[in-house]
Design goal:
176 residues, alpha+beta, 5 helices, 5 strands, 43% helix, globular
């Protein structure tokens, strides 16, 4: 089910990019600016697609960071990690009046540090519910956090969550 979940997400990204004017515009930006954000083309494509999704849903999306193309992490793990983290952040943000998703990537003491902060409803407390999915079809949902945890643990990394009431901050640190 983990593989099916990730493959469906990855294929969906590729399909969606070509469908509309915004997606085609972002693909052109990727071509023009390749290597400017992460230095990993397939990951840049995913991040730009998530940015496009946010634009469509009127979620303010910001990103900042440094290139980390020298990472010794499989592209599959990077895509799974970023796709699941960003999907969760976007889903929570779109439930708020002022939806925001902020992505920050940095090389930190020889590690890749990914920080994602997103708005969320104050009434939603993911840490208290152990990130249990609220979706009705919970057989196909709710495994993204387990995938992230597994990738982080396999790389001897750590993940930290901070619920600040109206926003959630997730920090992942893994060795480059």
């Amino acid at each position: 089910s983990k593989i099916r979940h990730d493959i469906a997400n990855h294929l969906n990204v590729m399909k969606e990019m070509e469908k509309d004017e915004t997606g085609r515009y972002i693909l052109k930006r990727i071509d023009k600016n390749f290597g400017k954000f992460t230095g990993i083309p397939v990951l840049d494509c995913l991040i730009f697609e998530k940015e496009r999704k946010c634009l469509e849903k009127q979620i303010r999306f910001t990103k900042q960071g440094k290139c980390f193309a020298e990472a010794d992490i499989s592209e599959y793990d990077l895509i799974s990690l970023f796709a699941n983290l960003l999907d969760n952040a976007i889903e929570a943000a779109q439930q708020t009046e002022i939806p925001v998703v902020e992505l920050k990537i940095e090389n930190w003491q020889g590690h890749l540090k990914i920080s994602i902060t997103n708005s969320k409803p104050v009434s939603v407390m993911p840490l208290q519910s152990n990130f249990r999915t609220t979706k009705k079809d919970n057989e196909k949902h709710g495994i993204g956090n387990r995938i992230v945890k597994e990738i982080v643990e396999n790389r001897d990394g750590r993940i930290q969550y901070e619920d600040k009431g109206d926003c959630m901050r997730t920090v992942v640190i893994i060795a480059l």
